[in-house]
Amino acid sequence: MKITLYSAQPYDCRSFDEVLASHFPDAELEFVYQEASLNLHTVALADKSDAVCVFVNDQLDADVLEALAAQGVRAIVLRCAGFNNIDLEAAHRLGLFVARVPAYSPEAVAEHALAMIMTLNRKTHRAFNRVREGNFALDGLLGVTLHGKTAGVVGTGRIGLCMARILQGLGCEVLGYDPYPSEAFKAFGEMVPLEALLARADIVSLHCPLTEQTHHLIDAKALAGMKPGAMLVNTSRGALIDTPAVVEALKSRHLGALAIDVYEQESELFFHDHSAEIITDDVFARLASFPNVLITGHQGFFTVEALAEIAQVTCANLLAFAEGLECPNRL
Fold first, then answer.
1. Residue 99: what pLDDT?
2. Does 237 qualify as catalytic in the annotation?
3. 309 is catalytic
4. What domains appear along the chain, each with residue ranges and CATH number?
């Protein structure tokens, strides 16, 4: 089976090659790595492929899916948990097999969220630069003690539960919100309505999928309802927050700090080196100008263990398709 893997980075190639050699040595899976992302202009790269393997910022709307199907592609495997970027109705209409990696090292994302909270609170990123310049002054590096603070976790799935466990371990009072509450969350904190969580939490961490219901979940109204000076953390999907509204909340100093590993318009920026270019996204540039904003480039998932698990589950999904077996990760 020939699979075109789009948005391929060097670490993708290494992890898939290693997993094929160690876990699937006899599997007839031939990966063709393409650095280009999938869109209507790059569909032709998958010519003569049986399947395509895609990531979070690849485009899989009806036009792209129809073009893929027309040139013989029969399966779409996502090497991620989220699937908001694929038109599932069109995929099913075209008879395409679609599968994802429903969860991979949820601890990795939760740990990254914690790293961002700790960095932004204690300003270790600024301290690092100061010390390298021989500046050991502490003024401007003041943080708060997280023990005893209230932390809100929006979304109590596997990653949200990991985050709640970490926050409880720090000595925080943990609040949770989820339209489909997890019984397991009761071991770590209290389930409350979203409005109550926003009003009480010193830290709000988002861990929910992007759907029609969660699009711009944190908008101007939600931001106004947050506790003054609170920190907002998003390691899930960029469109969970209304970015221009967040900029205004930062400018008014109502929002105390922002940590994001995802961005609504990230497809034009993330996973590539733009250091020698002018970034024309004015909203992103404005965000990056705030001293109380920390941005990372969608690296929450980026651990050795997570990459290996992504490759293993993706290959298993492909073999289930090839052999006509039931696939638990099929959408």
1. 97
2. yes
3. no
4. 2-104+303-322 (3.40.50.720), 106-295 (3.40.50.720)
